[in-house]
Amino acid sequence: MKSLDYYLERAGIISNFTLELPINAYDFASRLGNASRYSTIGFFSDFEDVFSSDYRTLVKGLVTDRQFKIKHQARLLDFGKHTAIATGHIQPTDYGIKVSVKMNSFKIILFIYMIIATAYFIIAALSVLIGLIYGDVMSIIFLPFLFLFVTITIILPYLLLCNSTRTMQAFFKKQFQYLSQ
Description:
By secondary structure, this protein is of the alpha+beta class. It has helices at about 5-10, 25-35, 45-50, 110-135, 140-180; strands spanning about 15-20, 35-40, 60-65, 65-70, 85-90, 95-105. It is built from 5 helices and 6 strands. The protein has a 6-stranded mixed beta sheet with strand order 1-6-5-4-3-2. Strand 2 (about 35-40), helix 3 (about 45-50) and strand 3 (about 60-65) form a beta-alpha-beta unit. Helix 4 packs antiparallel against helix 5. The N and C termini lie far apart (about 45 Å).
């Protein structure tokens, strides 16, 4: 049986990438630590960022010389970029370091929200279908609203999560290349 990470990676919510950089682990970790604000990444940590006036750093998290857990700092009207969390491991090699990064936009609260929204859609679709079977032609009026509901409550959050993963993967690749120079 395949893990949940496999399916989330296929859906585009999780992605993995590896970079080889010509720098030693201590220098890379110190540069990444200087470029990021020290903070724990938790459920309520984004609320602190939105009302913060510190615009010097774009990244926050925990960085050591062997691993890191960082994310983009949340801003007001920043739609979805701050949901992706980069968890990485730094391995020294003969020519520098090898950085293995896992970008993850999956949150359990969003998963619960998607299940509830999908259940609500299934119940509403079944009620429209039963209405059509019993000859209630007026239930056809609810079909456009049902598709609008699905678009707003299920498809839009999914697209925002995938976009966050893609955007932050490109951002962190550029950031790591810049830090290694």
